[in-house]
Batch of 2 targets.
Target 1
Amino acid sequence: MRTRLLAVVGAALVVSACSDTISQPVEVDDAVLVPMYSQGRGVGQDEVMPGEVIVGLRDMAEAEAVARGHGLAVGQRGLRGDWLVMRGAPLGTERGKAAEVARDSRVRYAEPNYLRQTTAIDGRLWAFYNPGGLNMNYTKGRNSGKPIGSSYASIADADEDNIEGYAAGGSDVVIGSIDTGVDMDHPEFAGRLLPGRDWYNRDDDPSDDEGHGSHTTGTMAGSSVGVAGVSGAGPHVKVYVQKVCGRRGCPTSAIVDAITAAANQPSMVAMNLSLGGSSESQAEKDAIAYAVNTKGVLVIASAGNGGNGTVSCPACDPNAISVA
């Protein structure tokens, strides 16, 4: 089951990545400063949500008192109550403000509310201009330039294993889509979607207004075969849909709540995150550890699609399964 599930969820990740250089953690009293993943030349810092800092408090610490002490105000609180967003940092100072708050003895950690980005879909992909392998031509010999017969094309196509009946066996399970949402009315997903929450807009409508989440969900669970983007690998799965991305990107605060909610969903076995950034987040680490170690739910994330030889986060987390 674990191997089959990895194939279903991992199929949604359009990625390419290699190795990382990781700095060693630095201990300060009983706290550990989270190591950052070196992203190499030419890779910029993550963008952040303007004015926001994610803070994990120590037991008995009063959030309002901590926030006031640093000129901030208390915003949303995480689902498990182990972190909260503090707002009001002057624009452009979010990293410095997080470092300031992290030095407070009442605080376990503080970090900017990073903005992850979805893993881009390359429009040059084979399936987009050759769905089902039906538009193939000979490239050499006396037939060069002429169409290849459909019977041969179906064998030679790159999607040759994605045929009728593929993955028809297996048990009914629930997997999580943590992305831009999903087109809830698309016929490919009829009877397959479990609507969750839009954590970006903080409402209960996780409809996709960008397309990325519908594409990745189609790869996991679409009902058609040979159609670009919707030839699903797992016909028996239901998908618990959560939207974490908007026009700015995908805030860490939204991602962390979505991971927690997916982990708490009945019959959930794995969740897919085709998104990432360059900075490791302690809030994400805690949520992933909760999902994997407490709830027994796999967290599968995109290693990245930038071709820069690095692993994106949250895929960089040791408890996540990084797919490249």
Note: The chain has eight helices and 16 strands.
Target 2
Amino acid sequence: MLTKDTSIIEDINYLIDSGKNIKIFFKDLIFYTKEKIIEKLNNKENINNDIFILDTLNKSFSDSKNSLDENITLMI
């Protein structure tokens, strides 16, 4: 995400094609990222990149609620 590597789209497509609920996957990813931020805060580590990732994931998840195709919205 930070390097704008587009290969993640292939991974997301694989999840969708495998029948995984992409919305649940993103929700779990958001919670995982939050836990990592808390862990880094406790260790006094820099969380700037993690905040960017969390904001991006959260916005995509929120935008998917109003989308006709939530899978496409979550991939953007």
Note: The chain has a mean pLDDT of 83.
